[in-house]
Amino acid sequence: MVDSVRLKEIHACLGAGEFAYQDNGIDDPSPAYMHIARKVDYIAKALGICFDLSGEILSVRQSKHLNRGDTIPAGWYLGQFGRNTGANTDPNAQKGGLADEERLGIVYEVKGNRFETNQASGDEEITQGGYILCESIPQLIHIMLQDLDRSLGLQTLGSFAIANPNYNPNDVQFSQEYYRYNGLGQALIDLIYVASDTNKQASQANIGSLKAQAISQEILGALGVPVSYKQVKTEIGENIASIIYPGFNGSGQTLADLLAWALMNIALINDSVNGMSEKLPPTPTP
Predict the structure, then answer these.
(1) Within 13 Å of residue 75, how many CA atoms lie on the same side as its CB?
(2) Cα(254)–Cα(92) distance, rounded to whole angstroms?
(3) Is a pLDDT exceeding 90 seen at residue 165?
(4) Nearest to residue 143, comparing CAs of 156, 129, 128, 124?
């Protein structure tokens, strides 16, 4: 029967000539395995739209976790979907489904590390996350969100409370026992404000320290104590910092020396006055 013009147009739009047959190396090509209907079926399964011919929902297999170093079974691949069936007997494969059901498989590499008990020593050790086998994009996204939640604690950060370290029920300013936040954004705003205020207070304290240092140097200079700048070495982390302060230069006179000289001069003056009073003639009485 000769195809109608409309039928030829439909064949051309669907590319039936390309997907209907495959070259098997002989004169008569064999029907293509990956025809348009099967491609559409695989796309639907990858999107999580899984129904059998009667309209019943095909149950999604549970994801399968593999440790780092375990063999990834055939039919599951990193970065692309593979093809497998419910009859897969590999112990590392996802289980479930009928033997003749065509299923998809994709591998997600877990980014977050986890704690694992060493069976030999019984100690808790940090190990790599491993791999998780999935069969649809919705299941893959769910696993990715679980990995992200475990690494960042998104569920905990949704709504949380932080204890007030300065809590005092008798002080109106610190009467709130907990600070409550709805989302990480509110906490970040408070942290930025606290960091800015801390930086301001630190700058004011630094200026006050410089003022006190200058005033102490002026006072010591006014008292006649020779002053010079000294420094002390201190270790901050892996760096060595120098703290400069006004100190006695070691070559002049101290306050004790100046006081001793003053007392000696007073004593000499007192002796001179007493000696002069003894040499004066007595004052005549009228």
Answers:
(1) 20
(2) 85
(3) no
(4) 129
Cα torsion 133, 135, 141, 142: sign: negative
The one-character DSSP state at 1 is -
d(CA 141, CA 93): 19
Average pLDDT, the chain: 81
Please report, as a single letter, which amino acid is at residue 83: R
Question: How many residues are listed for the chain in this entry?
Answer: 286
Provide the Cα torsion 180, 185, 186, 187; round to 10°: 70
**Greatest Cα-to-Cα distance within the chain, rounded to the nearest angstrom:** 171
Across-strand partners of 159?
182
Backbone angles phi, psi at 213, to 5 degrees: -65, -45
pLDDT in tens, 99-141: 888 899 999 999 888 888 888 888 888 888 899 999 999 999 9
Q: Phi and psi (nearest 5°) for 250?
A: 85, -10
Q: CA–CA distance from 54 to each of 57, 98, 132 (Å)?
A: 9, 15, 31
Tell me 7's DSSP state. H
